[in-house]
Specification:
Blueprint (H helix, E strand, L loop, with lengths): L6 H5 L1 H18 L12 H15 L11 H5 L6 H17 L4 H12 L10 H5 L17
Helix pairs in contact: 2-3, 2-5, 5-6
Bound molecules: protoporphyrin IX containing FE.
Length: about 140
């Protein structure tokens, strides 16, 4: 019986995830709007967590020892517009790393499956979240 090859192996395994996420977070950290969320956060640590998280979801033999996404992002006011912008930056990074288009589509579909854990539908709803001692982080669009 033939074994189905995981998406993780199809894209080239850990070296590909490492390269994509390095490129992706270089762009995110440099971004005039989304970059503000990452100020004071170690880029290499976030790259590693993203690789572990996606590695597991893509069927790799990996472990994700990080926080639940809802908890990791709950102090950030993240909207659908920002998630779409983030995904266009992720797509650009995947294309620049020559990941084939059908695999890009599968990668982005997995990514989008977790938006529900992170997305805020309105500022009113966000302001009702009990953040305990954490400071809320709302970043207005510098171009708006
Ligand atoms: C515009 C959207 C997003 C922004 C601005 C954002 C920002 C951030 C920031 C600032 C952190 C560091 C949190 C901390 O260390 O306290 C973080 C962690 C993380 N994010 Fe996001 N994120 C976004 C969307 C996503 C999405 C869609 C995913 C997954 C599909 C994701 C996966 C992760 C993971 C795995 C971590 C690591 C959590 C940990 O360290 O335990 N993020 N994000």
């Amino acid at each position: 019986m033939s074994k189905k090859i995981s998406l993780f192996d199809q894209v080239g395994g850990l070296p590909t995830l490492d390269r994509v996420h390095k490129r992706f977070y270089d762009k995110m950290y440099a971004h005039p709007w989304l970059g503000k969320f990452f100020e004071g956060h170690d880029q290499q640590a976030i790259e590693l967590r993203q690789t572990q998280f996606m590695g597991v979801k893509m069927g790799g033999a990996m472990r994700y020892p990080g926080m639940a996404l809802e908890l990791a992002h709950r102090r950030m006011y993240i909207t659908l517009e920002q998630l779409e912008l983030r995904q266009s930056i992720l797509r650009e990074s995947l294309e620049e790393e020559h990941v084939p288009e059908p695999l890009i589509k599968r990668w982005l579909k997995i990514d989008a499956a977790f938006w529900g854990h992170i997305k805020n539908d309105s500022l009113e709803e966000f302001q009702q979240v009990d953040l305990k001692y954490e400071r809320p982080l709302i970043v207005p669009n510098p171009d708006a």
